[in-house]
Design goal:
By secondary structure, the protein is mainly α. The chain has one domain. The protein is built from 2 helices and 2 strands; from the N terminus they run ββαα. The longest helix is centred in the middle third of the chain and has 12 residues. The C terminus is likely disordered. The protein binds zinc ion. The site of zinc ion (ZN) has 3 residues, from helix 1.
Length: 112
């Protein structure tokens, strides 16, 4: 983990030969920071920052109230997953839910 970083996580399919897929590292000073934990766990599930890469959120949506993957608070603590996080995780893992299972956020979404 680079100095000054609160946390770090590997994506599920990171292309590295060693088995560190989805491993999460949190600086001991941030172990109780719900936003940092959710951000890094979301990386481990496959989500990227909302402002990085070729596809980004429009500025009006890029805030903690919509996604923990933002760096803009927008008045929210970012200590719960946003609707965009939930939808992205549902999209990535929906087919993997067990019969009668619940979504990762426990919102009761049934598998297709
Ligand atoms: Zn992050």
């Amino acid at each position: 983990m680079s100095p000054g970083s609160a946390g770090f996580a590997y994506y599920p399919d990171n292309g590295l030969d060693i088995d560190i897929s989805s491993d999460v590292f949190i600086d001991e000073g941030y172990g109780r920071n719900q936003h940092i934990l959710l951000n890094e766990i979301s990386h481990a599930l496959g989500l990227k920052h909302s402002f990085e890469g070729m596809t980004t959120l429009v500025t009006d949506l890029d805030s903690f109230s919509n996604t923990v993957m933002s760096y803009t608070s927008g008045g929210s603590a970012g200590d719960v997953l946003g609707l965009l996080d939930l939808n992205a995780i549902r999209y990535l893992y929906r087919a993997r839910l067990p019969r009668g299972g619940r979504s990762p956020a426990g919102t009761g979404t049934r598998p297709a």
